[in-house]
Predict the structure.
Amino acid sequence: MSEKPITASLDPDRLIALRRLKQAAEQGNAEAQFELGRSYGNGDGVPQDYPTACDWLERAASQNHAKAQESLGSIYANGLGVKQDFSTARNWYLKAASNGLGSAQYLVATMFRFGLFESEPDMDQAIEWYKRA
């Protein structure tokens, strides 16, 4: 993976913070991996780079980081730097919801309510997920 350099608008404090964040992410810290993925996805202090964002988010998601899982769902649902894939988006959203993330639970409930992301409408499932959310 050839990452674009961290620039942080040349703010020295921001550069140091991003370097430390990357170091923690490389050492396997899921929260740091999520934050670094979010930074690359949003172009926050680094050039926007969806493939790099996905790599870091997938590392965090593999450690059951619910916000990373939800972010990957959004990336695949919207085709941001990846081929749009509703089935993969649905799976990531379900993982995040199963890990207790309220916003993902609400999204999954809505997904079942309207049959989004290649799922069939299922009001019983929708109600159950709305209750969890």
